[in-house]
Amino acid sequence: FGWSLGGPYALVCAYKLPHLVTTAGTIGGVAPFERPRAIGEPPSIVDRMIISATGPVRNALAIALTAARYMPESLVRWSLLSETKAEIDREIIGQMSVAESTAFLYEGSRQGGLGIMDDYAAVGRKWGFELGEIAQRVLIWHGEKDLLCPMTGAEYLQDHIPAGKLEVVAGLGHFLLHRKLGYVLDELFFENECIEN
Predict the structure, then answer these.
(1) Alpha-carbon distance 190 to 23, whole Å?
(2) Under a CB-based contact definition with an 8 Å cutoff, are residues 157 and 131 in contact?
(3) Alpha helices (H) along the chain
(4) Which residues, 6 or more positions from 80, have their beta carbon under 8 angstroms from its beta carbon?
(5) CA 138 to CA 154: how far, in whole Å?
(6) What is the pLDDT of residues 78-90, one digit of tens each?
(7) Which helix (DSSP H) or strand (DSSP E) does residue 137 occupy?
(8) How far, in Å, CA of 127 to CA of 38, rounded?
(9) How many CB atoms are closer than 10 A to CB 89?
(10) Cα dist. 151→21, 96, 192, 195, 196 in Å?
(11) pTM of the predicted model, to two decimals?
(12) Do residues 123 and 8 lie in contact, with contact meaning Cβ atoms separated by under 8 Å?
């Protein structure tokens, strides 16, 4: 499974490796950005800039992302909280230690910002396959209060993946895995057991 912008990577695995992947999952994921209604997704200005950046802007953002690994943890945490609009997500982040809530940035930028730019660019351009070509079962979880990745993307995945099944998780937002990881893993394994039996 893939969380957030990791969702498309789980989907391409299901498409390209059907002999290895029986069930895929996305959590708070996104749909292809060239589709109708995708304008403005994700709502974060920073994410939209990184996804669409080219040329000198891309290089400048890569430098900024490289420099971000030297920012103090407290500043990174403040920035994360200020970008997070859903109250439930801010509550979940607030329950983490400063180190736990900021580790993703330091690890993601450890080898420089160009890798981050490449990851975003891959998700922002055509994925190289149609969702309708995914034959495997795809479980789609999306928090009803997710304000980072809109519900329209999850609904689009369900509508266009033949064996796609959307579950809207009540009361949670983008960070639903911090409360539902065990449930998600159980569901994925249960689906696989059903397929094998």
Answers:
(1) 10
(2) yes
(3) 7-16, 45-52, 55-68, 73-83, 87-94, 98-108, 114-124, 151-160, 177-196
(4) 93, 101, 102
(5) 11
(6) 988 988 889 999 9
(7) strand 137-143
(8) 15
(9) 25
(10) 25, 25, 26, 28, 31
(11) 0.87
(12) yes
**Structure token pair of residue 11:** 């989907």
Residue 147, token pair as written in the block: 């304000």
Three-state SS for 39?
coil
In the 8-state DSSP scheme, what is residue 90?
H
**Tokens 């996804």 sit on residue:** 51
User: What are 155-191's pLDDT values in tens digits?
Assistant: 999 999 999 999 999 999 999 999 999 999 999 987 6
Dihedral sign for Cα 171, 173, 175, 176, please. positive
Residue 185 token pair? 């893993």
Q: Strand order of the sheet with strand 164-169?
A: 2-3, 23-27, 137-143, 164-169
Give me the mean pLDDT over the 93-107 stretch: 92
